[in-house]
Each structure stands twice: as structure tokens, then as C-alpha cells.
Amino acid sequence: MSETKLTSKGLKNSLKNYSISEAISEYIWNGFDAKATMVEVKEDKSLLDSTMCIYIKDNGTGINRNQLNEKFEKAYESEKHVKTKLNGATIKGKKGVGRYSFYNTCYLAKWETVYQDGETRKKYTITIEAQNLIKFDVSEEVETTESTGTVVTLFLNQGVAVGDLREDIKLSCAWLLKLYDDKRIIIVNNEQIDCSDLIYSCETRENNFSDFHVKATICVWKRKLHDEYSKYYYLNSKEEVLCKENTTLNNKGDNFYHSIFISSNLFDENFSFESDMEDDNLIGFKTKKSKEFKKLKEFCDMFLYETRKPFIRAYSEEFIGKLKDKKVYPKFDKNNAIDRFKEEQLDILISNIYYFVPKVFTSLTVLQQKTLVRMFELIQSSGEVNNLFKILDGVVDLSKEERAEMADLLEKTELSNVIEMLNLVVSRLQAIKDFETLVFDKNRYTNEVDHVQKFIEQHYWFFGEQYHLATAEEPNFEEALRAYLNFASDSFYKKGEIHIDSKDKNKQMDIFAIQSVMAGEVKKCIVVELKRPSVTLSSKELGQIKKYYGVIKDDSRFQSEKIEWDFILVGNKYNDEIVGEIKNSTHHGIYNCVYKVGNCTIVVKSWSDILTELKMNMRYLEEKLKIKYSMLCDKSTLSSDDIIKEQENSIATMPKAMIS
Fold it and tell me: Is the pTM of the predicted complex or chain greater than 0.90?
């Protein structure tokens, strides 16, 4: 019977929080420390499917009997020893107590080890009981022909939950498996662990300095690894891990979990990671303060910084989506161009803040996040960026460089978005002016099909931002129903597959458009009948659109209680018959309504009404961007055909029809 020479009374305290998966990971690391290339983990289960024993087998060098004093009798030799192990040459950086990690979950641990002793191999067993960690039994050794390596058997306490052993081990050992690829293998219950599903990205860069070479590989993880911060791992040319340390990008609150493997011949010899002495004061040794190491670190830090940039940009979009799902954002009207613009600007502002200081948003309740986002929205509206920095300075320290870069980025982003919005507003105002020329110029030839209808097909935003043009070029009702069903359901109907039993089924609508909510559910449909400027709307034209209403009303496939239908008749003017119809329907409370039953409404509008409303909606942006309507291009000298052709290239045009 031998005794462990414990010099730290805190041994058991340091072990009491170890889970079974953490203990197993320690034995896996021990195997790799012993130059193993493969470690196998197996569970021995009872008839009730509970784990009784766990075996950890490695093909390493085994435990030399002559090294028992070093391996088992010395634990926690000193605080200095612990610090050296953490920052020194061991792969895992254990505290000298890894072999006793079974204490919290097992009543017994047994090591069966085979090692090479000269020309022969020898085998013996070590046993430790959890109740008496300071004593261990060692069997007599015997010669054997078995391969070198060690099998650790853990006998679990009753009621210990093992959990998802495979997943836990994968998260503990992923960085090592990635570092050595197929040179290190872990098999759990007869299945090899593959950590590729944990990898977000992996990239390598190399550089030849004047007196040394460096190769850096950055692996970005989709999840945080167990018991491991994001670290630099320093390797020599033989790919031996000599030292590891935390990177400067830990605890940023941005989910940028990473490992950077730095291999260089600078570390092959005469390099000390432990010394704090300057440069070459160690007589021929390089240190972390040498100019060579500083060059290497600068190269790797820049690589890491550039790798983080696109990751944070991509993740910021996902983060903004989560904020919106939690109703953190202010309410913006999707159908209002001004509100959409404001929301886009807030998206960009939040994205930029998250990019530089993601921890601003971490560890906050939904209410706190909502308050912060609303504050940023107010600052954005006022344009006072200095106030933004005052808020950020109260939450997190920004370096001078970060502040300057962030201010520059915000300024450029704001300018680019103002320019983009300016172009869109100018194009829309130009479209309004061009259409006024088409319909109000009494001396020009403007017809319904070639001019009015073609223009509105390109600019159906005249009737609302929220619509999608369902079909193009005057669809009949069978084609309209095909478009509607394809849009509103998961089915897909080909041309000619949909049939309607109605004498008016071949009548052609000028515009058929569909509005959907964000979830894809149809909310509203509009049918628009357009008349050329010379036509005065009367009961004849009204009767035409009532026939459209009749076809849709009589086909159940068009109907749903949740969907509203608006039938809109539009022309330059209408006669007294229409005026009478409007007066008779005022009780519905809908402007220019002439008929309403259930979820269907028929309205008559003049182009003057529509264009006036559009200009009023644009006035806010027009004033903010200081656009003078009178300075827009006067196209009165162009033909109607030329005006239509020019508008085809306008950025104000809407997407093409969903079904052609």
C-alpha cells in the first residue's frame, strides 16, 4: 500500500464539483499526454440501462512503474507547480489532480497499464478508493505481450446520471481533435467522435518572416467548448503544444468562440514561455517579450481580428431578428415608406453597435433591451451621435481606436443610406410627375392598355406598398385563381390546370394584386380596373367591375373570412350616377365606397385623389431630403410611349408579377 504525498489540504474540495463527463475527459487527456493516438470510452450498463462502469482505454506509453512517484504520489505539490502546469507544456493544463477526478462520482478507480521497460513490456494494476484518496494499491508487475497503453475503469456511485456522454466529450475535446485531425481519435461506445458539426469556419494563413516561419489556423466554433476559453495554442514544428493562453476576444458577449493554433519554428528550441524577462536576457533564450514573438503575435492578432469581422456582421443580423421576435423593437408600420426607412436605419445602427461592443446587449432582460433600443432609436432620430457614445461609455470601455472606427462607420453608413433613400424618393416623385403628364395632359394621346396599364404594372405601389402583383398582362379569372392558389397555399398549379364555371371567367382584369402578412398568409386582394383619361366613369364602367366581383364571390376557392377584397375603379372623373352611388354608401364609412357586402368592397377613385394622397405620404421625406418637386424632369415634350420606356429603368419600379 502506498500513500499520496498531499501537500494541499484542498484536494477534495477541488474535486467535489467534477461531473462524471468532466472526470472522463481528464482521463482522455491523460491518455493523449501519454502520446496516445486513440482513446476508447465504453459504458457497462445494468439490466435497467443505468451505467455501472465506464472504461477509458488508450494506446499511449502506459505508466512506467518507476514513475509512480511522479504520477501518483505528488499532487498539488505547490501553487507554483499548479501555475506552471496551467501555462506550460501539458496539453490540457491540469492542476496535478486529474487522476483523482473520479472522487465525486465513483467509489473506486482502477488502472491497468502496460509500459515498455527496455526490451520487455510489463503490466500491473493501480487501485484507489474514493473514501481514502491518499492511499493506493499497486499490484505486482508481470511481463506481457500486450500493446502499451492504459485502461481506466471507473465504478460509479449508485444514482449518478451519465447523460449524453458522447456530446459532453465532444465539447471537451473538440479543439484537440481539430488540431490533430485524424492523428487523434476518440471512440465513444464504438462510434468515433466527429466534431465537424461544431465548426462554423476554419481558415489558415502562413507568413515567412526574415528569421522564422509561422502558420496560424483559426477555428470558429458554433458553440462554447466545455471547460475551455477561446485560446491561443503555441506549437513547435513537431506540432507539440507547448503553451496556451486566452485570446483577447474572450467575454465580448458576441458568441465568437474560437481557437487559434500557432505553429512556428521559433518555438523549436531556446524559447521560454514562462520567463518574464526582456528579450534575450536569458542568455540565448527567446521570450514572449522578444521582437520575434511580438511580430508573430501581431500577425496572428490581425488574422483573428479580420476573421471576427464577417462573423459578427452575420451574427448581428441573427441577433436583430431575435430582438424583433421578442418585441424589443419599436412598432413600425410595414406599409409606410417612412417607417420602413426608420426601421432599416435602426437595424444598421444596432448592427454597428453590436459589431463593436456586443456585450452592451448581453445579460439584459427583455425590458432592459427594449429600453436601450428605444434610446438608440431616439438618438438616431435626433442625429446626435455624441449622445450615443455617452451611453456606451457608461456601459463599456471603448478604446480610442474603436471609438474612431465606429464614428467613421456610422457617418459613412448614414451618408450611404441617405443617398440610397434620396434616389428612391426622387425616382418615386418623378414617377408621380410622369404619370400626371400621362393622364392630365389633354393634348397628348394616352390609351388604357399601352400606357396607363403598363405604367401601373410597373408602379403598383400607387395602390399600396404591401401588395404583390399576382399576374401580368390582363389575366382572366382562371389565371388569377391559379396565381391566388399558388400564392396562398403549398400547391402549385400549372397553366391550364385551373377551371372556373362562369360566363364571365374570360373577362380580363387590369391589375390583380395580393397582400400577405409576414407569415405568408394572404390578408387582402385588390382588383383594379383602369380607364384612359378621356373616359368619364359611369354605371357602364361600374357594372364592369361589379361583374369581376360576381365571379370572385361565386367561386368558393377565392373565398376566406380572413381575406378582404377591394375592387377599385379608377379614371380621371366620374358622372352624377357614380356620385349618387357614393352618397348612398356613406354609412359604410369608407371613402368613395359604392358597394360593400361582407369582406368585399367596391370603390371608385379619381387619379387626382390617388396622386394627391401619394404626394402627401411622400411630403415628410421630400422635406427632410430637401427635394424640390418643381426641379424634377419635365417630360411633357416626350410621347407617352417614350415616358413608359424611360420608366422601365427607374429604381422606383416594383417586382414583376409572381406568375406570368
Answer: no
